[in-house]
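Q: Sequence in, structure out?
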Amino acid sequence: MIEKGVIENMDIAHKILETLFVRGHVEETIDHVNLMVENGCMPDLDSCWSAFVKTIVMEAQKLGDFALDRDFDVGFSNYDRVLEALYTEEKTLPAYSMLCKIKNKGGGVDQKGCDALLESLKSEGYSKQADISLGC
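A: Exactly. Output:
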């Protein structure tokens, strides 16, 4: 649709993105997001994320990294949910990486979650990363 210049009914495009993402086609989803952006259609990544952030955590983290790298306008509450899901599943280093990117972009995160992540880093032997001040 977008390649042909059809930008009506973008809700369908968003449903397609959600479906691709939920089925684990992260790279294809990101390619479609890029296509949309190149054609002047900013997808609603917030709504995409909310459906699956707790169920497919690593994929949600990839989408988060993608959005952060490109300075997309995404609610930081979604990043908080991804961070929480990552450290809950003991994916501490990916959570730390995302936290660093969020802080570098000037975003804020939930203090309680940030403290929990830093404690997880320390308990898993990543005290060097935990000692780096992230402004938590």
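Residues 10-131 form a domain with the Serine Threonine Protein Phosphatase 5, Tetratricopeptide repeat fold (CATH 1.25.40.10).
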